[in-house]
## 1
Amino acid sequence: MLMSMQAEGLPLPTPNATGDELFRLGLLYSTGQGGAPLDYVSAHMLFNLAAMRGSLEAKVYRKELSEEMASDDVAEAQRQAREWLAQG
């Protein structure tokens, strides 16, 4: 979640973040490394945004992650991605 990203002390991605930057942040959340909590919703959101910004790797990771997530969680990740885009 966007809120958990802030609460855990990791910076929110800036509106001008590149696909590669968003992908790397998504990796942290998908593995629970680098100070990020293990959070598939945040990881999916970041992979989704990274894919929109041209990261081919993010498309692969997003697909794999979505297969392990409940459909409600995927929908929440998509909602958060839209919210992030609207704030940019």
## 2
Amino acid sequence: MVDSDSNPQPGQIVLIKRGRDADQYAIIIRLFDEKFVLLADGDKKKFDRPKKKNIQHLQLLNYISPEVQSSLKETGRVTNGKLRFALAKYVNEFVYDRKKGESFNGERRCN
């Protein structure tokens, strides 16, 4: 766990607040510079083609995926399946607990 006001870290799960991917979860796979990070979700944004996103457009959640973080430290890479697994695990454990009564079927919004 990490404070939501602290600096972003690889493996940290974020909620996107602005842009076409608003209200979706992603994982920080790399820090680009002090203002931007690279995000991937393993589905629409794969590890090989991450999304560059302004930190101000993200809500940093106080959860770092240990699987993703250890994989990034050991090999510098992470599989898309591991990214999807980490996001599903976070949504099932934490989002369901917070939003009882609301359904989340994992489908993404279409534009």
## 3
Amino acid sequence: MSKTIAATFETRRDAEMAVEHLVQEHKIDRKAVTIAPVSDENSAGTETAGADVEDGRVAKTHTDGEPKLAGRVKVSADVDSSLADKVESSFATYGGKAA
């Protein structure tokens, strides 16, 4: 039986790390996983991470062509019910909150 598990993340990087964990560690088909903004704001997250931070300490300011940090990011995975606990655990590992 198939089940959809979803969580929201503060950063796009955390969401992408959770997806990679599902795909690489649990062999979940990448086509079964989606990343999307929670609202109409954007899909960059609400906190700086990765490329949003220069030199590991100073946050970049918004520039043309880059999204402003505004909304949370949602990851959904359509998986067999037997994988639900593993998906929820992976989401939690990267800061995901049940959606």
